[in-house]
Automatic annotation (TrEMBL):
GO terms for molecular function: alpha,alpha-trehalose-phosphate synthase (UDP-forming) activity; trehalose-phosphatase activity. GO terms for cellular component: alpha,alpha-trehalose-phosphate synthase complex (UDP-forming); cytosol. Keywords: Glycosyltransferase, Transferase. It comes from the Eukaryota. The keyword Glycosyltransferase applies. This is Uncharacterized protein. Pfam families: Glyco_transf_20. GO terms for biological process: cellular response to heat; trehalose biosynthetic process. CDD domains: GT20_TPS (cd03788). SUPFAM superfamilies: UDP-Glycosyltransferase/glycogen phosphorylase. The keyword Transferase applies.
């Protein structure tokens, strides 16, 4: 969500979690940057006069709030304080348990009135906090699903009605945009006309805003001496191997079990490659207190064990699994030395890892093997090998084609990807979205 204050040109950004974590330090508090797609997408923000509002991620005792406010103010941020139980019901149970799966085309959700009530209360607390705003915009970072998935949600009309309280609504792709417009028409009787939705006597602008990354940040990081040293170390260590990289939050939407199944089929079909390739899979811990995510972690660990158990030798393993966060320098070095990037999302609003990989491949022209169910596939289809992640044979084939692709074909496909990623940056996205927001206000 983004808004401009009525009297000033200050930009207000509101998201459930702040892009910062607060921790006690030396009797006071300190704020450090946290990770995720939204944080990355807004890294290129060219506005310096902004305030980011959100929940700090933990319950903060009333008497400590002054020092937390102080730590956050230094980072252009302010906390929306929530009691632990309310925050858990709102975030883990309704947002992660009902909304997130529905938006990612999953029909199995467990709805109950208590969590819905908490969700509404938290939204009211946020709304009160930014109530002086005149114009505001809503940007959806997930897919918006086809109606068969959306209409199953008992409170779908209330949610649509709430989102239509914005003046401008942004989506990643034409598909999500069309699904949303269709839902507003069918369920609320709203009238859709070009890029506008007419509802309750108001006109709401909605559009596709292509989200991107700050390519220069990656180019600059690659040039840093310690990253160059790390790149050389990795190249020496894996000089006889084709490196396949995967970077995903540990989330069922990212299709990690599907990736492991497909990789297993790939190795079963091409056992001669088991000592010639290595899949380095970084799975960033996410939503670890939600049971579904704990089960997922156990499932992925089991599959990793089965694959390495079958194919690792005392000298080499075709699979390296890293279930923790890695530094930005290390991430950049790994992207740079990899010949292939494998992304297997079952559904993904966009997927910025695809763009980050491309930004680090100026020299190597690596191949992007990309699930057709990512938003990114809508834009990067000509430069990547697309596949359906539920089809392990198809995944294996796409991976084999990537690993064995000729240099000249790699270069040709890379040029396509590069042109998309360098044109559609995060700066361009914020300018387009905020530019429209400002035009509407005026
Ligand atoms: P995410 O689901 O979080 O984002 P994604 O777009 O892949 O997914 O972005 C993940 C981000 O986390 C990347 O920028 C990546 O570099 C970063 N990251 C990876 N490893 C990290 C680490 N160790 N430490 C810190 N950061 C790390 C949601 C939607 C996506 C949509 C984005 C943006 O689910 O579909 O593309 O928002 O709109």
């Amino acid at each position: 969500m983004a808004a401009h204050t009525q009297n000033q040109r200050k930009l207000i950004i509101a998201s459930n979690r702040l892009p910062l974590s607060v921790k006690p330090k030396d009797g006071s508090y300190e704020a450090t940057t946290s990770s995720g797609g939204l944080v990355t997408a807004l890294k290129g923000l060219s506005y310096s006069d902004y305030l980011w509002l959100g929940w700090p991620g933990v319950e903060i005792d009333e008497r400590d709030r002054g020092s937390v406010d102080e730590a956050l103010a230094k980072e252009n941020a302010a906390a929306v304080y929530l009691e632990e139980n309310l925050a858990q019901n709102h975030y883990n149970r309704f947002s992660n348990g009902v909304l997130w799966p529905t938006l990612h085309y999953q029909s199995e959700v467990s709805f109950d009135n208590e969590t819905w009530d908490s969700y509404q209360r938290v939204n009211q607390i946020f709304a009160d906090r930014i109530s002086e705003e005149a114009a505001d915009g809503f940007s959806l970072h997930t897919p918006f699903p086809a109606d068969d998935f959306w209409r199953g949600l008992p409170v779908q009309k209330q949610l649509l009605d709430g989102v239509l309280g914005s003046d401008i609504i942004g989506f990643h792709t034409d598909e999500y945009k069309a699904n949303f417009a269709g839902a507003c028409g069918s369920h609320l009787g709203a009238e859709v006309e070009g890029g506008n939705i007419h509802y309750n006597g108001r006109t709401i602008h909605f559009d596709k805003y292509v989200v991107g990354i700050d390519c220069q940040r990656f180019a600059d990081t690659i040039e840093e001496p310690e990253v160059q040293t790390r790149i050389q170390e990795l190249e020496a260590q894996y000089k006889d191997k084709t490196i396949i990289i995967g970077v995903d939050r540990m989330d069922y939407t990212k299709g990690l079990p599907e990736k492991m199944e497909g990789f297993r089929v790939f190795l079963d079909e091409h056992p001669e490659l088991s000592e010639k390739v290595v899949l380095i899979q970084i799975a960033i811990p996410s939503r670890e207190d939600v049971k579904k995510y704990q089960d997922l972690e156990a499932e992925v660990s089991k599959l990793v064990g089965q694959i390495t158990g079958k194919y690792a030798t005392p000298q080499s393993t075709p699979l390296l699994y890293i279930h923790r966060s890695v530094s930005f320098a290390e991430l950049t070095a790994l992207y740079s030395v990899s010949d292939v990037c494998l992304l297997t999302s079952r559904r993904d609003g966009m997927n910025l890892v695809a763009s980050e990989y491309v930004a680090c491949q100026e020299a190597r022209h690596g191949v992007l093997v990309l699930s057709e169910f990512t938003g990114a596939a809508a834009f990067m289809k000509h430069g990547s090998l697309l596949f359906n992640p539920s089809n392990a044979d198809g995944l294996s084939k796409a991976l084999y084609d990537a690993v064995t692709m000729e240099k000249k074909d790699r270069k040709k496909m890379y040029e396509e990807l590069r042109s998309f990623v360098t044109t559609n940056t995060s700066a361009k996205w914020t300018e387009a979205f905020l530019g429209d927001l400002m035009r509407l206000r005026e």
